[in-house]
Amino acid sequence: MNESMERIKAILADDHGVVRSGIKSLLESEGDIQVVAEADNGQEALQQVENLHPDIAILDIRMPVMNGLEASQKITQADENVKVLILSMHDDEEYILQSVECGAAGYLLKGSSKEEFLKAVRTVYTGERYFSADVSRVFVNNYLNRKPTAVTKPNADIQNTYELTKREKQILRLLFEGVGNKEIAEQLNKSIRTVETHRFNIMKKLGVNNVVELIKKIEEEQVLKDELYA
């Protein structure tokens, strides 16, 4: 590599040290990428971004203290020049949508090849979006290109007031009915952390800070309640 070439500065966040080490070795085996800092949770990654202003933040979606989705949202709000690439084991479309909503420029499955990983990093660095080959590109593009439209049908404003996904509506309905995270996870055959991630995104969309405010909002907004029980 030409020594004068500017390298891509990356911050890497994953709560598993062995995984971080492997990814770092992969990235730095390429002459144009430099890992300038590592973090084992989203909060630490946010602090590193604020201190170092890297080009890219590579975040595991599941981390303690602050997960990758929340970290992505805060990082892109703190520095719009930093591109976020989410790493995940989940090809669930809801996770992909949530990553986009939280400002991520890319979403890559952990089982991706070395070549695809490097391609994702370089693509995101150039300002373009990148989604793992196993992810539905059509689905994501439809979401990204979606524009608000005028109400053309009598009940159009009821159909999805807060842009909630089908899974989010399901979880929100259970929360409203007083079901706890553990029971929701068991009913949906999901992990508690997955339910917590959904709950975080639901609260963000509805503009509330806790379950009490969440329930109050549903009780006060009949349109929202109708949407949940449609």
TrEMBL record:
Mention one GO biological process in which this protein takes part, according to its record.
phosphorelay signal transduction system
Q: Check the record and name the SUPFAM superfamilies matching this protein.
A: C-terminal effector domain of the bipartite response regulators, CheY-like
Species lineage, top-down?
A: Bacteria, Pseudomonadati, Bacteroidota, Cytophagia, Cytophagales
Give one Pfam hit by family name: Response_reg
Annotated InterPro entries: CheY-like_superfamily, NreC/VraR/RcsB-like_REC, Sig_transdc_resp-reg_C-effctor, Sig_transdc_resp-reg_receiver, Tscrpt_reg_LuxR_C, WalR-like
The segment(s) forming the HTH luxR-type domain are 157-222
Q: Which residues form the Response regulatory domain?
A: 9-125
DNA-binding recorded as keyword = yes
The name under which this protein is listed is: Response regulator transcription factor
Q: Which UniProt keywords apply?
A: DNA-binding, Phosphoprotein
Q: Which organism is it from?
A: Roseihalotalea indica
From the UniProt record, which GO molecular function terms apply? DNA binding
Source domain of life: Bacteria
Sites of 4-aspartylphosphate modification: 60
